[in-house]
Design brief:
- By secondary structure, the protein is α+β, with helices and mostly antiparallel strands.
- The protein has 2 helices and 6 strands; from the N terminus they run βαββββαβ.
- Strand 3 and strand 4 form a beta hairpin.
């Protein structure tokens, strides 16, 4: 089962502390060696992005920053694990790093299972 974890926080939280980045790199290396982490990454601020919206039959493109947004997705990870419970355990461990290395930071990680068709070839059950 594949899950995407999306880290959300206030966009003006600033760059993560070096100690957090080092701890996340270590955790990522361990998870990659264990074969459960497929991909991870941080995202640039919304000022570097754009939105494409379809509403009322019309497409509209809006360049960032997105001022009406209170929280933005600042990073993501894709895991291949055996269950939703295992995905939650991985996410709790990741969020604990934030608690330990970035005092005062507030945010959340949303966990969503990735849709897989029966012939997708997923290797872990």
């Amino acid at each position: 089962m594949r899950f995407m974890m999306m880290v959300k926080s206030a966009e003006n939280a600033g760059p993560p502390p070096k100690a957090l980045m080092e701890a996340m790199a270590k955790l990522a290396e361990e998870n990659a060696k264990a074969g459960v982490m497929i991909e991870m990454g941080g995202l640039l601020p919304s000022a570097a992005g754009a939105r494409v919206r379809l509403a009322g039959g019309q497409l509209a493109v809006t360049d960032g920053p997105f001022l009406e947004t209170r929280e933005v997705v600042g990073g993501y990870a894709v895991f291949e694990v055996r269950s939703k419970h295992e995905a939650i355990e991985q996410t709790v461990c990741f969020m604990q790093l934030h608690k330990d290395h970035w005092p005062g930071w507030e945010g959340e990680t949303e966990i969503r299972q990735i849709f897989e068709s029966p012939d997708s070839g997923s290797t872990r059950k």
